[in-house]
């Protein structure tokens, strides 16, 4: 998400969330938006206790059967044939793009960004 070409939300709300100069470094703004969104999701999840389950997009695309099975188990659903549920789920080549696409510019932004990436299971 942090290097997505779809920056509609950022264009519409960047000035409110990140200040008026966010557009000077769109990659940094995307990363900060990713950080803020995930932090808010975790804050909300803390109130839910054991009633939330994190699913990483990368895990869903790379291991759809395992990931969907884990979600089904979390929801207390019986084991079923998940083949139809995961049909079409795959890595379309976008996963990990941040490592190659201007990675130095993005990853060197801050210690906080590094810590957040590591907290969500990304090797920096």
Level of helix content?
A: 55-70%
In this structure, how is the largest beta sheet organized?
A: none
Note the total helix count.
8
Give the helices and strands as they follow along the chain: HHHHHHHH
Structural class: mainly alpha
Low-confidence regions: none
If you average the pLDDT, what whole number results? 84
Distance between the termini: 16 Å
Mind explaining what this structure looks like?
It contains eight helices and no strands. The two termini are about 15 Å apart. Helices cover about 60% and strands about 0% of the residues. The protein is globular. The model has no long low-confidence stretch (mean pLDDT about 85). With about 120 residues, it is an all-alpha fold.
Short description:
The protein has 124 residues and is mainly alpha-helical.
List keywords for this structure.
mainly alpha; single chain; 59% helix; globular; 124 residues
Produce the secondary structure layout:
Elements lengths: L7 H11 L7 H23 L8 H6 L1 H11 L8 H4 L10 H4 L2 H5 L3 H9 L5
